[in-house]
Amino acid sequence: MNAGNKGYSATALPAQKERMMSLENAPPEVKLAVDLIMLLEENQIETPIALAALEIVRNDLEKKRLQEKGNNQTPDTGE
InterPro entries per the record (predicted)? Predict the structure, then answer.
């Protein structure tokens, strides 16, 4: 196994390249999800830790979304 290919076999590399090319047209949330999965795998983060961290991130983003939603509401002036 070549150290430069991070443990992928020679036959897996073309398939990986094909998947990456198909990601070019993927929605942004799919691209982000793939990036996050790769980050977790490359850093060998254990599943329970990753899930706990993702829950913290989700809660934080939900709070932020509610705050932004509240800030974007303008009082009804009847106009």
Answer: DUF2496_YbaM-rel (IPR019630)
